[in-house]
Amino acid sequence: MTSLSEKTHRSTSPGCLHSLAAEGLGRFEVAVPDDVPAFLLAANEALQKDLRSLARSHLEQGREQIESLLERQPERSDIMFILGKLWYDLEELSEAETWFRRILEIEPHAHVYYLLSDMMIRNRPRMSEAAQLAQLAHEALPDSVDYHLHWASTLVRTGSISRGLEEFGRVETPFDRWPSDLQRVYLWHAQYSESFSLGQINRGYRQWAERFAPLALARQHHDNLPDPRRRLRVGYISADFRCHAACSAPKLLLDGHDRSQVEVFGYGNVACPDATTEALIPKFDHYRDIWGQDARRVASLIEEDRIDILVALAGHVTDNRLDVLAYKPAPVQVDFGGISTTGMPQVEYRVSDVLYDPVETQPQYVEKCLYLPNGSPVFCPPAQSPPVGPLPALANGYWTFGSFNSYPKMSSMILKLWARILRQLPTSRLILKFAAAADETVCEHLRATFEMKGVSGDRIRFSGFLPAMEHLELLNSVDLLLYTYPYNGCITTLEGLWMGVPTVTLVGDRYAGRAGLSILTHAGLEPFVARSSTEYVQKAIAFSGQLQELALIRNSLRSMVLAGEACSPRGLARGMEKLYRQMWKTWCSTQRDLKQND
Question: Distance between CA 38 and CA 32 in Å, rounded?
Fold first, then answer.
């Protein structure tokens, strides 16, 4: 009988199960054997129609049949792969892992290693295992650019930033020939390293756009009525109309928009709608579910809706639909919340604030920056929150620092600064909360890193993922938060302020490194902003000696956040509407000029 390796090929044959085409990495398919059990074909057909319960039922009912087949033909890794991939597509990852592991008992296979690695990334206690499996995928097929890039990406995601970026650099295929998703992953990861300049990163996004979103795709003329005073049709396109940190902006905008000035459309590219999605949909005047739809079809839908201003939320994030904006379905297109340029001349504007994107950074962007007067970070206070507790140091007798930012943001430079702070305050503690802390191997690595820098590992406390209330409650154990560098956090700072905990931040030279500057300045907390690494250390140490002052700040921060513009639907919406009107008047003026020239 034929093994998986012998059956694997690159093919578009109709004899391949649809669900076996690998997402992201792959032009990988498995030829369907002639004797494939009927229940597998039925499960695949149900899955294609998104009848997930039916697909699951077919697989459950076929268990005995499969075991009987494999008892007679134990080498049938091709059948095991089909079964494992179907469970994988159903997101039944423990079932999928069982079958993929059985394949590896028979033979090594790069794509099986890759799929297992992807599963481990989703399974936080096994992040270090994800990197090991990604390396095995690369070693099994070393000539594959896809697997090499995936390994490099996984290294960065599991905290080995320098090594991961080094592996990206070893890929022999030129950057401009990499797959689209992997180009964007690399450029996103480059934000974590002080070795990459803003100019380098933004040049990379321009290269991405030239290849994957060329200007030649753009619609040249729009027949929207060029009346500068009329009600505008504004469309928001996003993957984050769901329970996600990036959902604060659409929530506030939808609650604050003046519907006499704007008619609001939502284009949701949401893979798994949830309760947040259901709560948001009625807030739009019109909502379109665009998940899985072809970019040209979505662009046509936007054209049919006669959108005047199309706003992409958050730029180059997972599942964004910048491919839709490449077709220029609206006369004015905007990026709001992206940490970098889109690279696309089809996007005329970037909404930010002058602290995030100083005027001198404008040449780095393809888009023209327009500024919100009261800052661009936004925050929706949770419906339920624990009360703000007293300053922990008053009861503990020692100082507790904290960082709730993701693991890749902990650069070698910031770890060195944290160690300096802890050495100078020998009784102090540090709480690190991040998803990968569920993996004890990751925690041991960080403990060892601090030990090498002269800080006992038992002074570091780790926490992985926590439910929302427990996450906020943990902030009651922290006296002062420390920001990461060169990539700051955003929502973590706002959550800290909500729980009465300010953050010491080191200002960077790019958008991702200036969140702390913007948030703290607009909150009236500029003394917590440091302009150099020396000042960062000095301020962290100095604040640890100001217990009474910080206790007073702690008691007042929540009311300050509520009173500020970051939580104001009306404030954000009016600021955006003013900018939209400015953009629209500019477009109307260009239309008049074109008409006169004709």
Answer: 12
Classify the phi-psi angles of 90: left when phi > 0, otherwise alpha if psi is within -120 to 50, otherwise beta. alpha
Instruction: Assign domain 218-371 to a CATH class.
Output: alpha beta
Question: pLDDT tens digits, residue range 366-424?
Answer: 999 999 988 778 888 888 899 999 999 999 999 999 999 999 999 999 999 999 999 99
pLDDT digits (tens, 9 = 90+) for 311-353: 999 899 989 999 999 999 999 999 999 999 999 999 999 999 9
Q: Span 121-212: which CATH code?
A: 1.25.40.10
The CATH code of domain 392-566 reads 3.40.50.2000
User: Bigger pLDDT: 181 or 132?
Assistant: 132
Task: Give the number of other Cβ atoms within 10 Å of residue 398's Cβ.
Answer: 14
Residue 269 has pLDDT above 70, yes or no: yes
What is the secondary structure of 559-584 as a DSSP string? HHHHHSGGG-HHHHHHHHHHHHHHHH
Helix axes 127-140, 440-452, angle to 10 degrees: 100
The C-alpha atoms of residue 215 and residue 417 are separated, in whole angstroms, by: 44
CA-to-CA distance for 138 and 151, rounded, in angstroms? Answer: 7
Residue ranges of the domains in the chain?
1-107, 121-212, 218-371, 392-566
Q: Tell me if 362 sits within 8 A of 473, measured CB to CB.
A: no
C-alpha span between 179 and 168 (Å, rounded): 13
Phi and psi at residue 7, to the nearest 5° = -90, -20
